[in-house]
Amino acid sequence: MTFSAQTRQDNLEKLANEMFDLVIIGGGITGAGVALQAAASGLKTALLEMQDFAEGTSSRSTKMVHGGIRYLKNFDVGVVADTVQERAKVQQIAPHIPQPIRMLLPIYQEPDATYDMFSVNVAMKLYDQLARIHDPRLTSFTMTREEVLAQVPDLNPEHLLGAGSYLDYTNNDARLVIENIKKAAAFGGVMTSRIKVTNFLHDHAGKVCGVTADDLLSDESLTIHAKIVLNAAGPWVDNIDSLDDQVPFMKQLRPTKGIHVVVDWQRLPVPQPLYFDSQHHDDRMIFVIPRDGKTYFGTTDTDYRSDLRHPQITQSDLDYLLTSINQRFPAVKITLADIEASWAGIRPLIASNGSSDYNGGGGGHITDQSVDQVIGSVNNYNQGRATRDDIAEAIVASEQTLSEKILKPSQVSRGSSLHLKEDGLIVLSGGKITDYRRMAAGALELIIQQMKELFHQRFQPVDSTKLRVSGGDINPSNVPVELQMISDQGEALGLDANSARLIAHLFGSNALQIFTLTRTTQPAPGLSLAETLMLNYCLSEEMVLTPVDYLLRRTNHILFAADKLAAIREPIIQEMARQLNWDEGQTKRMRQHLDQVCQESDLIYLKAGQSHA
To answer: What gap in Å lies between CA 254 and CA 272, rounded to an integer?
Structure first.
């Protein structure tokens, strides 16, 4: 199988000329999960993503498959049980991606602390039971103050009581998406990036029967026909929903922004991931995670109303994080100048879903002010002084008052929503990465039901708990050993140990396909053999169309190897230009795009402002 730029051209022909059972809008983790399950169940499936796969929220997370231990403080047992058990299922179907690590939870005697030593011990024991962790090497335990400081000498000793240590999982979010996408394509799914949906098609009965879309690479328009259309566009769900003019539009999302920054590990030398209260009295907690010789930390959680495609880190965002880090690690004194890379992401939180999933909600009542605002917006609309969006925002605000008492962004539920609109459009929104498989299974159940009722076609849903993603053909109960065996084969064929290990961990069982080309591949000018092998594979099997696709979302070079980028940037561009037949103008545009993304990641716009201050 190939999944390349040429595949994309072939897919455009199929999109324009064939009838699909299902068209999915959105190529993040939610859409990718539905695409895989639908294609594996025999539905003729197409997926349309307006950017690169995972370019939005699904490559901008904390890069954890987090168990949610903090929610046991309020005895949200059902939530944590669901989360840790679903995490175990994801680890079974994508065993090379979520990797177990031991998380350290320092406990301080201070106001608003999430845990004290007694409660964290109780929470961790319950967490182990819910996660079915019984191996003594993996179970949770508490540490004394002295033990914590011996392990993490730079941690602030003031008011430190001790710590909890428990099992959690790291994640490679963008790779989880592309591995789902590739497997869906292997089942016959037509997975296509850089296609922007512009409108919905309706039949004579007013039912959705397809979409119109623009090919963003050629500026040509497409008409795509489908029996069922699913909106799984993440933060863009409301934008897509608003295109459906047959049904009144109601906003449902309350997007929030979270940021993370990367420094060299020597500047923040933590031996293992840590998770602690932010000290901003806002119920947030901060992750500090070592990875590939770097340390990254985050996150913020603030309401967001700007450009969904290009969220940026502001000085206030950065001040929030640096204050927290420098309070917990007072000797390190991290500054803006230390930051090598960063990312900002938008969470597609459901505004009115305040009683489910993570954070609970509470009773309440709609205030007189909220009622007046809704009535006023309706009156203004009738008089031509307001839009439907203004009404929707007033209603959402009133719903927040009722179900959440205008909760802080960090308290908005991470719950998901599956909704069948009157004209047949299915909308799947909200949720979090850990829940993607379960969300997809629920959506597929509704899709199959609609296919039976409306089109008299029967499909048997695949057992998604046994459906491995691409690269996942390794024993999930013996992952470290199996990845090492794969890595050993790369070494045996001439790669150095570090390169072979990197390829094995990025590509899982697909690394074997890469290694087979070791002796027949010549390194591209300016690139190592290993880099050439990875680039060739991503061009032929992962629909890489730009240098940023490769360097940011397929390999994480921009995030965790920014200090080594200078040597390979131009060779990558030149080799892609050669293989993809770019002319000088296209090559220049790709170079400029890569420069822009690298500068934004490096926070040049903030560093420049500081240097002129």
So the answer is: 33
| 8 Å CB contact between 97 and 436 | no
Tokens standing for residue 38: 């639908």
Pairing of strands 99-108, 160-170: antiparallel
**Nearest C-alpha neighbor of 210 from the set 500, 56, 484, 424:** 424
Q: Are 171 and 64 in contact (CB under 8 A)?
A: yes
Q: Is the peptide bond before 139 cis (omega within 30 degrees of 0)?
A: no
Helix axes 584-601, 569-580, angle to 10 degrees: 140
Arithmetic mean of pLDDT, 111-115: 90
pLDDT, tens digit, 9 for 90 and up, residues 537-589: 999 999 999 999 999 999 999 999 999 999 999 999 999 999 999 999 999 99
Mean pLDDT of the region 207-232: 98
Which residue, chain included where needed, has tokens 């009404």? 391
Please give the model's pTM, rounded to 2 decimal places.
Answer: 0.90
Q: Strand pairing of 426-430 and 416-420? A: antiparallel
Three-state DSSP at 21 gives strand
Cα 74 off chain centre by: 26
Beta bridge partners of 285: 277
Domains of the chain are: 5-58+174-247+421-466 (3.50.50.60), 479-609 (1.10.8.870)
> Of 207, 300, 306, nearest to 259 (Cα)?
300
Q: How confident is the model at residue 392, as a pLDDT?
A: 52
Q: What residues contact residue 407 under an 8 Å CB cut-off, 6+ apart?
A: 354, 359, 361, 400
* Contact indicator for 343, 559 with CB cutoff of 8 Å: yes
Tokens of 386: 């307001």
pLDDT of 338 > 60? The answer is yes
* pLDDT of res. 112: 87
